[in-house]
Amino acid sequence: MRPSHEALIVIDVQNDFCPGGALAVAGGDEIVPGINALMGEFAVKVLTQDWHPADHSSFAANHPGAAPFSMVTMPYGPQVLWPVHCVQGSAGAAFHPGLATDPADMVIRKGFRSAIDSYSAFFENDHATPTGLDGYLKTRGVTEITMVGLATDFCVAYSAIDAARLGFKVTVRGDLCRAIDLDGSLARAGAGMRAAGVSLEL
Ligand code: VGL
Ligand code: ZN
Predict the structure, then answer these.
(1) What confidence category does residue 46 fall into, taking pLDDT thresholds of 50, 70 and 90?
(2) N-terminal to C-terminal alpha carbon distance within the chain
């Protein structure tokens, strides 16, 4: 068992990001057994859940004429328009059925405001609105984070970079992540994580 200042954060292992889901990540389901095994090592275990209202502004369907995976400019910056995914209460938003959710101490939901997306588990995409996770971890005495989940190049990378900026020592287990890889996003995410001081273990 690792010491209590180390936390495992499992990002968005939900049906819509697994094969057959609305925003399927290739091999997204392959990481589930390894994540379950890793949870047994950590005293502090947090799961995140992408959790959007049906009228969410990140959905291409809510922008007449816009194609999924195209870009728009939101008041807070550039935003990819995604297929409808992880709608609150839908089967797609549920955790992968194989994920061991019972051992988790905390489930944090994000992306629940229609006007703003939230890739990161710490801040929404304006990089300013907090989710509360920083306070949760710090009040529990956590200083080191291991991060796994979906997708490497969006929610995992944004979360890892924010965690490093907030002063946590961060390791991303690349073998327990899978990527969307949209227009070079995986290479950019890897460079961004390294520049932020995140250790990338493959
Ligand atoms: C994610 C795109 C949209 C993710 C969430 O979990 O990486 N990506 N919403
Ligand atoms: Zn989303």
Answers:
(1) very high
(2) 22
CA distance 56 to 62: 7
Whole-number Å distance, alpha carbon 150 to ligand 2 midpoint, is: 11
Predicted model pTM? 0.98
**Alpha-carbon distances, residue 5 vs 8, 17, 27, 94, 140 (angstroms):** 10, 30, 31, 29, 8
**C-alpha pair distances (Å), 107 with each of 48, 175, 196, 199:** 6, 22, 25, 24
Tell me the CA–centroid distance for residue 111 and ligand 1, in Å. Answer: 9
Tallying the residues shown for the chain, one arrives at 202
Determine whether the shortest distance from the Cβ of 9 to ligand 1 is under 6 A. Answer: no
What does the H/E/C string look like for 84-153? Answer: CCCECCCHHHCECCCCCCCCCCEEEEECCCCCCCCCCCCECCCCCCECCHHHHHHHCCCCEEEEEEECHH
pLDDT at 38 over 90: yes
> CB of 164 closer than 6 A to ligand 1?
no
Catalytic residue list: 12, 110, 155
Ligand 2 centroid vs 85 CA: distance in angstroms?
6
DSSP 156: I
